[in-house]
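Quick note —
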Amino acid sequence: MNTNTDAIEEKQLFGHPKGLFYLFFAELWERFSFYGMRALLTLYMVNVIFEALAERDYAAAAVYSSYGSLVYASTVVGGKISDTILGMRRSILLGGILMALGHFVLAVENNTAFYLALALIVVGNGFFKPNISTFVGSLYKDGDPRKDSGFVIFYMGINIGAFVSPLLCGWLGREYGWHYGFGLAGIGMLAGLLFFWSGIRNNVFGDRGKAPSEAVLSKPLIGVPQKIMVPILAFLFVPVIAMLLSSYKPLSPEGGFFDDQNIVNIIFKLIGVSVLGYLGYIIFKATPDERKKLIMAVLITLFMTVFWGFHELSGSVITLFADRNVNLEWIDAAQSNAINPVFIILLSIPVSLLFTWLSKRNLNPRTPYKFGLGLAFAGISFYILALSGGSADENGMVPFSYLMIMYFFLSVGELFMSPVGLSKITDLSPKRIVAFMMGVWFLSSAFAFQIVGFIGKQLAIESDNPDVRGFETLEVYTGGFELIAQYALAAGVIVLVTAPLMKRLMGNVH
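Predicted structure written out below.
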């Protein structure tokens, strides 16, 4: 007799569990909402929230980096709560509701509402993001050969949402007002929730994703069952996050990395020191073989942090550069955020086929070489933007082609690094601390936004003119992009030169 889970496995669509396609559309619409809002966020802060400030760029960079850091750090907490109390289903639904509320609150023209909206998205993302991907993996048995292709399909949904949303939300924001764009992002999140809920109603998931036990859900916490108390605490934590996000304190952009007194930055510096200290302790206590692999896992995480720190400038400094210094021929600055995901969609299969072709000839580069090349491609992409100033017209505007070519190289770099990194962390980490190392991997994206904030503040334009552009901004941006290119290329060269040593650290992990 079939169990409920066995019966679910018989429900197939295009050779995959039917539940995959419900999760595909749920994630597509969630990413639609997330990236649609992100495309508008920096422009909205510069033009509305901080419009009256001469240092509007600096303020926007501070809030944007704090928001990005908290969004990714929240996944560590949300994932733990899901594993121990709520389960994936309840966590995804709770996270989706919080995020949808956040997007709709952004449609309210009020500064307090702005910070509360960002806080709702931060807390909601913590519950939603780590669980939807894990849910996909749970649809397949260990060793199922369809699992990799299932994740490819799922990843495609992410990039379709990330591609379409800046175009639509950007168009609405330009033609009808910022808040219509934010409102559409909220509708996208609701659509994602409906797809996931319909998957539960149609029983395509079987018993997957339920809470660890009903007893845990009903266990009282301060006299209230945990299944009720967790959502209450999540909502109560929103004002705390809003306060942290609004703690921006104007300081001189000439200050160093450790001079910024933003509360979120201080918190992340303390977390960074603590995590590195604990990693050092784990590495010291590990066996010689484990020690080598753990050192390599830490290095991979650091390289990925550097890459994301440059990559995530697309939502802040690069968007402002597009707005102020690029002749956008058929899109606006917010819509330029769609270029990266469309390149990922177009290049994913060719790059995958390239690696397969190289593997058959025993020429497929090991992970350190791919990471070194990925950083080098990031450096090339920023050099292209740095060179764009030489083609500026009489108004200080550069051709759109430079932005396209830049995103092409950045996307290639992403495909060389991002798909490999996550799997290598699980392969290199001892089984007893895999969950902890995955948490460290998620934190790497949070720390990347600290780099984004630092760079954004260095390239901030101070002006009493809210519509500053042209030659007033061109030299600042191109000079900054040249420095970023030099750092990225230097990092890439260091990784490539030390790759033979890192191969030895990896041992039998390929």
